[in-house]
Design a protein that fits this description.
CATH topology: Rossmann fold
Strand order of the largest sheet: 3-2-1-4-6-7-9
CATH class: Alpha Beta
Number of helices: 8
Largest sheet: 7 strands, parallel
Strand content: 15-25%
Shape: globular
Mean pLDDT: 88
Radius of gyration: 18 Å
Distance between the termini: 49 Å
């Protein structure tokens, strides 16, 4: 563990420090969100396999988030040292990509272990205390792939979609008790995430286009959601257009994707 966070942070109006636990704080969305929260005077505990990026956390706890006992221990330690969590932010994920039938079952399970099962372990550990106190928020960074089928992201998208539906069900139960559930759906953001993934049956696409959304835009949106403005947000003009298109003309974007595939 590094750092102690003493002397920082503002209270939540009830005298308690605003303590956020960010899981997946070593890079990408988690690191940027942790840094943005600290600038907004939250106390941030970063939990990840590798130490949190510099400036993204007041303390960092290293563990394998897919090990339930290790994750529970890190969450307990975070709340013991910095006080009860006012927010749990889940940014951890595993890039499992490629042709669906060529992705090994072990890799497919790994996507669910990180994105779904580890996430619900963290929620089970932290949310009951939030319910008892009558306040708190869970924010999970998902993906446009949770809302619609994206080529070569079958297991990644399925794990994100499972997480989204589980969280939506949980929201019905805990929001009347003062605990907010926030869902963030970015599209492609150039963080090196895709390049770190295992691509089975194909090479990593050389040119992936997004909507110009940067990692800091995701962090800013996460902070805005945690501050109470909305419960769900899709990031990126292209992604919002896809979601809207799926509502008003179901199947149209799939036909566009298939046409592109034949031309490719």
């Amino acid at each position: 563990m590094t750092g102690d966070g003493r002397g920082r942070g503002t209270s939540d109006g009830r005298g308690a420090k605003r303590h956020a636990i960010v899981v997946g704080a070593s890079s990408g969305f988690g690191a940027a969100t942790g840094a943005a929260l600290r600038r907004s005077r939250w106390i941030v505990t970063g939990i990840s396999r590798r130490p949190a990026a510099q400036g993204s956390a007041d303390q960092t706890l290293s563990c394998d988030v897919t090990d339930p006992a290790a994750l529970q221990g890190a969450l307990d330690q975070a709340e013991t040292s910095q006080g009860p969590a006012r927010a749990l932010v889940w940014c951890a994920g595993t890039p499992v990509m490629g042709r669906t039938l060529e992705v090994p079952v072990a890799a497919a399970r790994e996507a669910f272990e990180t994105t779904f099962w580890a996430m619900q372990t963290a929620v089970r550990a932290v949310v009951p205390g939030m319910v008892t106190r009558g306040q708190g928020a869970v924010l999970v960074v998902l993906s446009i792939a949770a809302l619609r089928a994206v080529p070569h992201e079958a297991y990644y998208g399925a794990a994100k979609a499972a997480a989204a539906r589980w969280l939506e069900c949980l929201a019905h139960e805990v929001e009347p008790q003062g605990v907010a559930v926030k869902l963030l759906y970015p599209g492609f953001v150039d963080t090196g995430f895709l390049e770190r993934g295992g691509w089975w049956g194909m090479a990593s696409p050389p040119h992936v286009r997004g909507s110009g959304v940067a990692v800091d835009d995701v962090a800013r949106a996460a902070c805005e959601l945690l501050e109470g403005r909305g419960s769900r947000r899709v990031l990126g003009w292209r992604e919002r257009a896809i979601v809207l298109g799926d509502r008003v003309a179901p199947g149209l974007y799939d036909r566009v994707l298939r046409l592109r595939g034949r031309r490719g």
